[in-house]
Amino acid sequence: MPQTATALADHSTVADGGPPGSEFAPLLRTVKGRGLLKRRRGWYAREICVNALVLSGAVTGIVLTGGSWAVLLLAPVLAVLSARTAFIGHDAGHSQIADGKAAGRLIGLVHGNLLLGMSYSWWNHQRPVRCSFFSWTMTYSERTGGT
Predict the structure, then answer these.
(1) Count of Cβ atoms closer than 10 Å to residue 115 Cβ
(2) Are residues 54 and 123 located together in one domain of the fold?
(3) Is there a single domain that holds both residue 57 and residue 111?
């Protein structure tokens, strides 16, 4: 029977009886032990290729329809592609796609700057502000005033 995140995070000591650690540490060990944080390069490569093909098809459709109202039929497709592109750019910003910084930065720049029109650098520098509402432990929450 699978354990919930709460049940996994309730352990306050390490397995060998050492000093208590972060409340998040046991959950992180379990997640890493099951291989859930491994990079999935093949999946990302496939998704990036699918996005590129569908985007090129949508742009071709826009060019072929010209100024017709029928171009609006492509709006939902472009909305979904924008969301998928943003997710890939987000994962690149968290270094979840490639091992090297250069490859991850290139993926982020293409998806953020080129395809979305949003600064990849700005996104990465805003991360501490955007993610400041996460408080993994009560100690951390008390130390930072809940932010």
Answers:
(1) 19
(2) yes
(3) yes
Cβ(118)–Cβ(77) below 8 Å: no
User: How many other CB atoms sit within 10 Å of the CB of residue 6?
Assistant: 8
pLDDT per position as a tens digit, 92-142:
888 889 888 889 889 989 998 899 888 877 777 765 555 544 445 556 556
CA distance 119 to 145: 30
Map residue 108 onto helix, strand or coil: helix
My answer on whether 102 and 74 are in the same domain is yes
Q: What is the mean pLDDT of residues 62-83?
A: 92
Is 52 inside any structural domain?
A: yes
User: Count of domains in the chain?
Assistant: 2
Task: Give Cα 76 distance to the centre of its chain.
Answer: 22
pLDDT digits 0-9 by tens, 41-58: 899 999 999 999 999 999
